């Protein structure tokens, strides 16, 4: 597994934008949490943001398709959309390869 | 009965409400604008003017109808859009600061985005909803929503989401313009016309002979009558302008007033007074027959009356026209200096037909001339087919007639005489100039092919251009037809000679008679003298005899007295 030599600090900064309790949103939260817990446990910071509550964020963060995961760290910044059900793609986005 | 009333109310509510776009001409074609509270699809190829039309829709909405607007741009960045339309006098930045406009650049890049399962476009809905709600927008533009298809892969989701978006726009009660790229065989590349079906406007740009013409057509307008033609439109420094092909009614008022042509002999041919004011005159002829001279003469005459005139020259530059006309005794320069005459010279190939049309429109609208010259209209066929030129001229004639402007057009006759034949039906007066080639020389002939509503001469006249101006001369009829030029002059000379000879012959006869008269008079005088001397002789004889008899009587009495004494 990569990133082993990182001394326990927050290696992954993730922001997940969702829309209330829509099925896609709920699935995305569940799927992402499961992936993170499995592969990068204790090395990530995940912030789940409900855009319905902060509508101006949609423009600020250039959001179109949702749910949207922005991987702020590690750089470069990456954007993933969807309910995070395609685990391979999510892992690839996180830079985790086998 | 109550049921009936109810029905009427329902019907009233169902009548389609329209929103004026504020785009010149478009509201006329659509009979009042685009459907209120519904999305309208504007499709067309790249560079066909979609973005501009939508921008103007938003800007006019704010400035003219007090309706704030949201512009969602998928292709251009906000700054790019602002810069691009600044040249048209649209101050997007100012409108944004005033809180009347929101521009949102929606950027979707396939390379930056990984799709990891089911998603929706709720983000777009939120953005749009937020923008609409913050400024209370009544108008929305999505330009070009199809870009999403290149940024996102799942077409199934996109279609479903766009369908939902259009439905949502209706629920939001905003009047929206959704632009889309034209497909190969379809109106839009992604078949958006399936979802936005109330009103579809197609923009097109066609290039014929390297000249581009922009065209607009209302493909569909549910629940409304609309013009179905292709309407030329153009983009200039004031935005977009669509030109209705013709005003469908022929209800123009006409004037009885006449305007002189500047050639008295021509006026005489036209019943003595010239053309009708506000009528259209076509002067056609082969090259070098003096079309421009007639046009300049007419312009000069109008300016000399103190009226304003615009001369649209498609062949010569203003200095050229002024110099050439001076050589025939027409000085246009003072009129140009006084501002009465405006010569607008442009190459026909400079821009498309409709642009010419609008240039003429605009200039006439601002300068308000009484007379317009177009010299020559036939040159416009280099930028359009004969039927296109005719359609353009129809609109132009209509416009002039409405404005009460007298227009004189010249047309070069091509051997097949296609153009002047086809436009002759549009004009009120048609003067035909003709080359008459006889006896090794070329002369100009003119006749009036038609002149609606006035008595006019049916005679062919020789059209003479001298350094003192233009003149129409009666042609001579000879045994071989009409005589012009030298033949006419020869005929004239011959007649003059005859006149002189006749005069001389007459005076010689007179002299003979005079001489005879004098001889006779002398004779009469002689005879009278003879007679007088004879009479005198006779008188003398009488006196002598009287004297003699008296003396004798005296003598006798004296003798008698002597005898008696």
From TrEMBL, chain A:
PANTHER family: CIRCADIAN CLOCK PROTEIN KAIB2 (PTHR41709:SF2), KAIB-LIKE PROTEIN 1 (PTHR41709). GO terms for biological process: rhythmic process. It holds the Pfam family KaiB. It comes from the Bacteria. It comes from Chitinophaga agrisoli. Transmembrane segments: none annotated. Residues 15-96 form the KaiB domain. This is Circadian clock protein KaiB. InterPro entries: KaiB-like, KaiB_domain, Thioredoxin-like_sf. SMART domains: KaiB.
UniProtKB/TrEMBL annotation, chain B:
Residues 535-557 have a biased composition (Basic and acidic residues). Residues 17-256, 257-486 form the KaiC domain. It is an enzyme of class 2 (transferase). This is non-specific serine/threonine protein kinase. InterPro entries: AAA+_ATPase (IPR003593), Circadian_clock_KaiC-rel (IPR051347), KaiC (IPR030665), KaiC-like_dom (IPR014774), KaiC_dom (IPR010624), KaiC_N (IPR047221), P-loop_NTPase (IPR027417). Transmembrane segments: none annotated. GO terms for molecular function: ATP binding; hydrolase activity; protein serine/threonine kinase activity. Residues 535-565 are annotated as: Disordered. Keywords: Hydrolase, Kinase, Phosphoprotein, Repeat, Transferase. Its EC number is 2.7.11.1.
